[in-house]
Specification:
The protein is an alpha/beta fold and 315 residues long. It has 2 domains: 215 residues, Rossmann fold, CATH 3.40.50.300; 92 residues, Alpha-Beta Plaits, CATH 3.30.70. It is 36% helix and 29% strand. It has 11 helices and 14 strands. A hairpin with a 2-residue loop joins strand 1 and strand 2. Helix 4 crosses helix 5 and helix 7 crosses helix 11. The longest helix has 15 residues. It is globular, with a radius of gyration of 21 Å. The chain binds adenosine-5'-triphosphate and magnesium ion. The site of magnesium ion (MG) has 3 residues, from helix 1. Adenosine-5'-triphosphate binds next to strand 2 and helix 1.
C-alpha cells in the first residue's frame, strides 16, 4: 500500500527581511526514502520544522497525508514521527520516562503505552537502557532514543533532520541500518543529510534546495543523469565473488554502458547513458550474467558530482 504524502505548497518563510524559504513546491508520495540535500543555510531544517508545525510559514501551506498541518495539527501529526534538532530537555529522565511523556503528547492510548515503548526500544536495541537516565548515555545512544521517540506510535511518515550527524562511524552505521529497516515497512521517510554516501546508500530519491528554492527533485539516478555533463548515470555494483577482467570487459560490451571501473575485488562502478530506465536494463543484464549481484545503487561519487554541479554557482 502506498499513499503517504508530504506536500509543500508555495511555502515561504521570512525572518525579518531574510528569506529562508521562497515559494517551495514539493510533493513526496509513496513508500520510499527521500534525501533532502543542500548547503548550510539552504532552508532544510526550516522546511522540516514547518512540516511538523514547530514554526509557521510566512505564506503557503504544508500537508501531511493531505491534511493541512497548520489547520489540523493534531490529525496531521498523528501519522508522523520526527527527529529535528532535539535540545536535551529530557536529560534527567530515564528513557522510559521520556518515551512515556512523548507517548502522552502523541496521544497514544494509556493501555498500549507500555507495549509501544517496549517495541520501539527493542527496535533501536536499547532495551537494557530503558531505566537509565538519558544524560548518562553516549551521543549515539541518545540518538537511538530520539529515533525510538520518532517511531513511537508506528507513524507512516518519518521526518529526520541529519539523523547521523555527530555520531561515530559505528553509531552512524547503526542509525542507518535502523532507517533501512524502517524503509522496508511501507513508510515515507524524508531525511536531510550532508553525507552523500549515506544518501546514496539509503535513499531512493533526492530533493535539492538552496536559498529556499527547490533546484532538483527525483529518483537519484534521474537527477544524476539530468545534471551530469553527458547525461550519463553511474551505479555501484557489489557482487558475491571477485570478478575478473574478462567479466568487466563483457559488461563494457553491454549496450548503453559507457565505462566500467573497478573499486575493489567485489565492487565496480558502471556508467550508463541515460537515467533509471537504462540502469534497470543494466541490472537485469547483470543478473542474467550470474555474477552474484548483491548490491546495486547509485554511485556516491556520481551523486557528489551532481551535488557540486547543482550547487556550484550558489554561494
Ligand atoms: N530563527 C531564525 N531567525 C533568523 N534566521 C533564521 C532562523 N532560523 C533559521 N534562520 C536562517 O534561515 C536560513 C535557513 O536555515 P536552515 O536552518 O533552514 O538551513 P539548513 O538548510 O537546515 O542548514 P544546515 O545544513 O546548516 O542545517 C539560514 O540562513 C538561517 O540563518
Ligand atoms: Mg539544518
Amino acid at each position: 500500500m502506498t499513499g503517504h504524502t508530504l506536500q509543500a505548497a508555495n511555502l515561504s518563510k521570512e525572518y525579518g527581511h531574510f528569506t529562508a524559504l521562497s515559494k517551495l513546491n514539493l510533493k513526496l508520495e509513496g513508500s520510499k526514502c527521500i534525501g533532502f540535500l543542500g548547503p548550510n543555510g539552504a532552508g532544510k531544517t526550516t522546511t522540516l520544522k514547518i512540516f511538523t508545525d514547530m514554526i509557521r510559514p510566512t505564506s503557503g501551506e504544508a500537508f501531511i497525508n493531505g491534511i493541512n498541518v497548520h489547520f489540523d495539527k493534531k490529525k496531521a501529526l498523528a501519522s508522523v514521527g520526527t527527529l529535528i534538532e532535539t535540545p536535551e530537555i529530557y536529560g534527567s529522565l530515564t528513557a522510559r520516562e521520556a518515551l512515556s511523556m512523548i507517548a502522552e503528547i502523541k496521544g497514544i492510548p494509556k493501555s498500549v503505552v507500555k507495549k509501544s515503548i517496549l517495541k520501539v526500544i527493542e527496535r533501536v536495541k536499547m532495551k537494557e537502557w530503558l531505566d537509565k537516565k538519558i544524560k548518562n548515555m553516549s551521543k549515539g545512544m541518545k540518538q537511538r532514543i530520539n529515533i525510538a521517540a520518532a517511531i513511537l506510535g508506528n507513524p507512516d511518515v518519518i521526518i529526520l533532520d541529519e539523523p547521523t550527524s555527530g555520531l561515530d562511524p559505528r553509531g552512524m552505521s547503526e542509525v542507518r541500518s535502523i532507517i533501512k529497516d524502517l524503509k522496508r515497512e511501507n513508510r515515507l521517510i524524508f531525511m536531510s543529510s550532508h553525507l552523500l554516501s549515506e544518501v546514496s546508500e539509503i535513499c531512493d530519491e533526492v530533493a535539492m534546495i538552496d536559498h529556499g528554492k527547490l533546484l532538483a527533485y527525483g529518483p537519484i539516478g534521474e537527477v544524476v543523469s539530468k545534471f551530469s555533463h553527458d547525461g550519463a548515470g553511474e551505479v555501484e555494483v557489489s557482487v558475491l565473488r571477485p570478478v575478473g577482467a574478462a567479466v568487466l570487459k563483457r559488461i563494457r560490451g553491454i549496450g548503453g554502458v559507457g565505462s566500467v571501473k573497478r573499486v575493489d575485488g567485489r565492487t565496480f562502478t558502471v556508467r550508463t547513458s541515460g537515467g533509471i530506465k537504462e540502469q534497470e536494463a543494466l541490472l537485469s543484464r547483470l543478473v542474467k550474467m550470474k555474477i552474484g549481484v548483491i548490491g546495486f545503487k547509485p554511485s556516491s561519487s556520481a551523486l557528489e558530482e551532481t551535488y557540486l554541479s547543482v550547487f556550484k554557482e550558489t554561494v
